[in-house]
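Q: what sequence does this backbone want?
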């Protein structure tokens, strides 16, 4: 079984034996014996072929189908992505976490990977779907990346949809602050937000916003 640990903020080390899953091309070095193969259908090997195909279709249609590889072997496996900061999250049994696909770096075999419908974020790059990982086995760990040091918040809170990276608990509501000034170009630039109303959950954002939004103005 593999376990993840942070190395100098910008690198994740997977140590142990067996297998885990990572974004294609995440490896920067390793010590030991490893092989990797691209996952064609699904990371959830205990599912039927039909469910695996449906899971793949859902990821493709939702835009959350990031290329993933299955890494087999034993030793120490170093992973990074464009010098982004690394955060390792250990899930509780049965706990789920929503993660932006572009920020997902790796996860252990103790996690079930899929997508879930949010129904919000049409204006922002957040989209209406997000990647979903659920703890189903031993040592369920998820590795995420952020542009800059991650900001960890406890709910309830309101965040910019273009800065959010991941969260535990229920999905947020889509909050708007749109009025006639918005259409005259007098907006504050913070008209669309994600509102997390549950108590005691965790939201991680990054100090870097994705380029997005609907720019409507009269010059």
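A:
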């Amino acid at each position: 079984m593999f376990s993840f640990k942070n190395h100098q903020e910008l690198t994740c080390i997977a140590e142990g034996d067996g297998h885990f899953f990572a974004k294609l091309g995440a490896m920067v070095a390793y010590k030991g014996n490893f092989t990797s193969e691209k996952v064609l259908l699904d990371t959830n090997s205990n599912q039927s072929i039909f469910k695996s195909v449906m899971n793949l279709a859902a990821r493709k249609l939702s835009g959350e189908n990031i290329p993933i590889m299955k890494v087999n072997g034993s030793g120490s496996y170093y992973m990074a992505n464009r010098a982004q900061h690394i955060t390792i999250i250990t899930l509780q049994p049965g706990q789920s976490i929503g993660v932006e696909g572009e920020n997902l770096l790796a996860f252990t075999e103790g996690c079930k990977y899929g997508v879930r419908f949010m129904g919000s974020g049409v204006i922002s790059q957040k989209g209406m779907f997000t990647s979903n990982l659920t703890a189903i086995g031993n040592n369920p760990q998820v590795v995420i990346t952020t542009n800059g040091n991650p900001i960890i918040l406890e709910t309830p809170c309101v965040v910019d949809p273009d800065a959010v990276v991941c969260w535990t608990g229920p999905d947020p509501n889509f909050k708007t602050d749109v009025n006639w000034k918005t259409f005259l170009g007098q907006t504050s630039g913070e008209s669309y937000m994600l509102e997390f109303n549950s108590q005691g959950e965790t939201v991680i954002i990054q100090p870097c916003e994705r380029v997005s939004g609907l720019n409507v103005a009269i010059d």
